[in-house]
Write a structure and sequence with these properties.
By secondary structure, the chain is mostly helical. It contains 22 helices and no strands. Helix 14 runs parallel beside helix 20.
Length: 472
Amino acid sequence: MSVATRSTQSPSSPPGPEGPPPRRTGRLFALTGAVVGVIYGYDTGSISGALVFLSKDFHLSDTEKGLVNSILVLGSILGALIGGKLADALGRKAAMLIVAGSYTVFVALSALAPNVVVLDAVRFLLGVAIGISIVAAPLYIAESSPARTRGASVAAYQVATVAGIALTYFVNWGLSDGGHWRLMLGLSAVPAALVLIPLFRLPDTPRWYVLKGRTDKAVEVMTLTDPDVDPHAETEAVRAALAEESGGSLRSLLRKPYARATLFVLGLGFFCQITGINAVTYYSPQIFEEMGFTGDGQNFLLPSFVQLASLAATVLAILVIDRLGRRAVLLSGIATMTAMLGVLTAVFGFGDLKGSGTWIGFGAVLLFTAAFNFGFGSLIWVYASEAFPAQLRSTGASAMLTADLVANLLIAQFFPSLMSWAGAATTFAGLGVLALGALVFAACTAPETKGRQLEEIQGFWLNGGRWPTPAP
């Protein structure tokens, strides 16, 4: 989920007399952010395998299993709410240092937890760090990358996050024979500690220096990050953009002409998670076991292939989004999710869970997850950034993120209990109805913004959700 699109200036990378050369520094910004993305993805998905074994060690009920997941999301909501203010007050770099340091400490502590109460407390704090990361990392990358490579740099962060989730399942598979859940949870503390080294060397972003009135430093960093532009002119553009962004408020989102845009981004954010993607991320080993697969090897290895397909789908979306258009990518992704939830409902309700039905179910889970990353996962923040003018862009993206995380919290807490109480067929049928609702909602509200300037897109909302008729 990228918040990077909030930035409206053309940022860059750094050197300075003591820093690395400009091109190398720009790559270091992107690489550092990508590593944080991998760690974020890993920490989000690592519980999927660990939960199988720690549930036995701690004798957890279905409700307690849900809490182990949902407590992380609850912390993420708090972290996301404070992340923007923290990044503005202390700096993007300082926020990233806090994130990496917190990852290191809380991941290690979660691996050492003596009981579920301590584990829940530590995972809440880890969730706060994740929430800050969701805001700060894409922002740091976007504001530190040259305009010509910003899109690729931010996309690389999104791909890195999916790669981190995929890596989780391969690690879980490798450690499943011994049930080493503490290692599953704790391994990411090592890269989190190592990423502190380049972070200490890198400067903050030009935009933040301008925000704090340090224009000389902004010019210096701009020179290092993007030697192809006039650093003084670019710094002035940043200053002008910041002046334009002031004054955005939550109340403004609820007034005309942007109330319709607010409804759209909030609905998209909520549907993105309530349709069940993190049910697969958090609980895939249990889903595959319910489907009829046996043995930890299969139940941990199969999700690895699911996430690899998701990684490929994310890359594909990046390649085609500006050719096929936003609506085509979004609607085809949601439609495929809806169809696959229908297949899963049939598999669990009427299928042979000892024969071909298991592999049909696996294929449905794989296509469901890939379709999410192709549609929702790739487009949600694009629309968030395009729906509002500069002064409301940050507030609108934060509102969407909150809606997204609230739905994620509901899925994380109640999915295992629903599976036990209502059964898999009914649970997936319910998710299918929600996905169908998401498809109808997106078809009725999502504009096609391919090739449109931001000012044109704002005209769509100003005109009541219709494109203005060109003057004759």
